Amino acid sequence: MTNENHNSLRIIRGVQFAMVAAMFIAGAILYARLPDVIPTHWGFDGKPNGWSPKSFGVWLIPGLSLFFMILFPILQRLDPKSQNYENFQKPWAIIQTSILGYLAYIYAVTMFVTFEPAYNAMVGRFVIFGMGILFVVLGNYLGKVRQNYFVGLRTPWTLDDPEVWQKSQRLAGWAFVLCGLVAIIESLIWIAVPYIFFSAVVLTVVVPIAYSYVLAKEKKKIAAAK
Q1: Strand pairing partners for 53?
Q2: Per-residue pLDDT tens digits for 27-40
Q3: Position 94 confidence tier, pLDDT thresholds 50, 70, 90
Q4: 103 within 8 A of 67, measured Cβ to Cβ
Q5: Vertex 225: Cα angle to 221 and 226 (nearest 5)
Q6: Are 38 and 58 in contact (CB under 8 A)?
Q7: Where are the domains of the chain?
Q8: Angle subtended at Cα 174 by Cα 97 and Cα 64, rounded to the nearest 5 degrees
């Protein structure tokens, strides 16, 4: 790894730590002002339909973020293909950071609407918009992910063949970007959201999986014909 890449990774990991620390600090600062019970889940209609005691709810997302930040490097070490991570360290670090960033964003939204319940109707838009941004970021880096058991499109066919893996990741990346753009647009127009958004998510998952299967079968046919 070059010094430039090493420095970039240090900066990215510093950003991860700062985001998680900021959530815990914000929770500690706001804790006394929060009601005893805070909303933690909303329906598409904008109405809260899940609540938690603040002693639990205020630390839930920061705690989950800290758990993920600790878990990511452990998964890398446990991966049977851990040697491949050296070939996509920066994309892997950015993927981790984008997930933690989305959790921090959701935490900020939760705290904001807890203090400003008049904006409850906007929670769905906020969440879908943030998810759209997350999908676009992930999609831009999926094509750079190399074979492993924890990140990317992991099917029996992609894990069996590096070429199938690489082509399938590229398609999955495009699918994620398109799904993210659909989510962003939906957050603005808010029309038939559950149907359009979840249909886009299903296609984002199903199409690359089917492609990896077809691609693997075609390669076997070609190899058998030689």
Answers
A1: 37
A2: 999 999 999 999 98
A3: very high
A4: no
A5: 125
A6: yes
A7: 3-225
A8: 25
